[in-house]
Specification:
It is a single chain. Helix content is about 65%, strand content about 0%. It has 13 helices and two strands; from the N terminus they run H-H-H-H-H-H-H-H-H-H-H-E-E-H-H. Helix 3 packs antiparallel against helix 11 and helix 11 runs antiparallel to helix 12. It is globular.
Length: about 300
């Protein structure tokens, strides 16, 4: 059994099974704690799936891409190439790329609906109102029931993984370099990704079932989930891209944080990453679930 200090500050010269065990547990902690590289994306795709299985699949698809990336990054850490992170802060660029991906995925889901959001013209949007939407309630229109593209979640996972936080620093700069060869080093990233995947599958299933507590019909839950997913991806993408651009322009923003006294990474301080999680999941995500619920249960819709 490892104590927390041993997990967060691994010793050198550890046996291969011990290193892989630490990587797995760190991955589980990473997937469980609110992280800007995982929660906003898993939330966005999970709520659009509306079912336990769909939410689990969203967590799996995102974490699959993330695991592949962490496997590559751990191998680079062993080779010494990841030392670039000691010189350059790539978080801002990663946020921008993730934001653009979320924005495009959200726009894809919003096409054909009567939802008006910023940047529609820039992205080529023209007609929002469909003739079917004019005749039917929004949640009954086929255009509002586009499937949430989970393949995009895999791409997001791969892109998001290039951001280096406290957990990534441990596996890349401490654990991977002490492995006997580059192949074992890559396994450090794989085990970390598997740990993250396990927890993200659980969290994805929870996110996907949020609206079931309201005793709504399956079609109503589908509409609320997909509309909230679309808006969260779209507006959350704008937030990621904007904050990423700010970090690129003013790198010191990424270092600003207030300590909480909790030693666990992602809970140890409140900084820009915490703001992204709160804004995307808390404000935009849950806010749009509430708006969707109010819309679907309003007298004009019910009638």
């Amino acid at each position: 059994m490892f104590d927390l200090n041993a997990l967060l500050h691994p010793a050198s010269g550890l046996a291969v099974p011990v290193v892989l065990g630490i990587a797995l547990i760190l991955g589980m902690l990473h997937g469980l704690t609110p992280d800007e590289h995982t929660w906003p994306i898993t939330f966005s795709y999970s709520v659009g799936s509306y079912s336990t299985r769909g939410g689990m699949r969203a967590g799996f698809m995102f974490s699959g891409g993330f695991t592949v990336q962490r496997t590559i990054l751990a191998a680079l850490g062993f080779a010494g190439l990841a030392a670039v992170y000691e010189t350059y802060n790539l978080d801002g660029y990663v946020y921008v790329l993730v934001g653009i991906g979320m924005l495009l995925a959200g726009y894809y889901l919003l096409r054909g609906t009567d939802v008006h959001l910023p940047l529609d013209r820039l992205l080529g949007g023209k007609e929002h109102h469909t003739t079917k939407a004019e005749r039917l309630p929004m949640h009954e229109s086929e255009e509002t029931a586009k499937p949430v593209p989970l393949k995009m979640a895999t791409a997001h996972g791969f892109i998001a993984g290039w951001g280096i936080g406290a957990y990534a620093s441990i596996i890349v700069f401490i654990l991977a370099p002490q492995m006997p060869n580059i192949f074992y080093a890559a396994l450090v990233g794989t085990f970390f990704g598997i740990g993250t995947m396990f927890m993200q599958i659980i969290i994805g299933s929870i996110f996907a079932n949020i609206m079931r507590v309201k005793k709504l019909t399956v079609e109503q839950i589908k509409y609320i989930g997909r509309s909230a997913a679309a808006r969260t991806l779209y507006l959350g993408g704008l937030a990621f891209a904007a904050i990423g651009a700010l970090i690129v322009a003013f790198p010191f923003i990424d270092t600003m944080a207030v300590g909480t006294g909790n030693p666990i990474p992602n809970l140890s301080s409140v900084g820009i990453s915490s703001v992204l999680v709160l804004l995307t999941v808390g404000v935009i995500g849950f806010g749009n679930l509430y708006l969707g619920y109010k819309e679907i249960t309003s007298p004009s819709r019910a009638g």
